[in-house]
Specification:
230 residues, alpha/beta, 8 helices, binds calcium ion
Length: 230
């Protein structure tokens, strides 16, 4: 069951998205307001990915994203942004979105992003040989439950943030380029911008660093990428 929630108040755009997702084999659930979208998500735990428009009559798409994250961090979230809303991309990712698609988008681009997010949030493709836990005090990563603890306290991560931490903890002390991180976490067929890596790292630091302005776990390698530990 591949269920996608489509939140969009403009009916033309919503049906365009729905038709194309159905054609790609997805089951769609439609919502015209943020309140309606949240109600659908609450009543249907089968929804795995949500597409959120930003400008809406009631609460906006950012607020919907925030509330989704407050109740379930496992749903993949893609923001639908207008080309003029450059800042919205960053704001959206900071509220917990996994990706964004800029309007107007082609059916191919949209389904590629949804496919990619489904693969990332999919589970089921766990590598048999990998251990269930990676312990690097103060962190403990459980790859079976896809959870992270810091000093025994659960850190709520999105699936993308989890993917980044897992990559780091599997490669301690190794400088990883932005491209490597993008390929490993988003997939080689992802055709977004490298900036999405930086935005997710910034958000991850807020969650796991003692002092996010002076990070000690996720270190910047200038002009290259990032490194876990020193
Ligand atoms: Ca709208």
């Amino acid at each position: 069951m591949r269920k996608v929630l489509v939140l969009e108040d403009e009916e033309n755009i919503r049906s365009f998205v729905v038709i194309n997702l159905k054609r790609a084999g997805y089951e769609t659930i439609e919502a015209a307001t943020g309140e309606e979208a949240l109600a659908r998500i609450k009543e249907d735990p089968g929804i795995r990915v949500a597409l959120l428009d930003i400008m809406l009559p009631g609460i906006d798409g950012f607020e919907v994203c925030r509330r989704i994250r407050a109740m379930d961090s496992k749903i993949g979230v893609i923001m639908l942004t207008a080309r003029t809303q450059e800042m919205d991309k960053v704001t959206g990712l900071m509220t917990g979105a996994d990706d964004y698609v800029t309007k107007p988008f082609s059916p191919a681009e949209l389904t590629a992003r949804v496919d990619a997010l489904f693969r990332r949030t999919g589970g089921g493709e766990e590598e048999a040989a990998s251990p269930d836990e990676i312990s690097q005090p103060p962190f403990l990563l459980n790859t079976r439950n896809r959870t992270l603890e810091k000093n025994g306290q659960r850190v709520k991560l999105t699936q993308v943030e989890y993917g980044i931490v897992k990559l780091f903890m599997e490669n301690p002390g190794k400088a990883l380029s932005r491209e490597e991180i993008l390929d490993a976490v988003w997939g080689k067929d992802y055709f977004g911008e490298l900036k999405i890596v930086d935005v997710n790292i910034r958000r991850l630091r807020i969650k796991i660093e003692d002092n996010p302005t002076k990070p000690t776990y996720v270190n910047t390698v200038w002009g290259y990428g990032y490194k876990w530990g020193s």
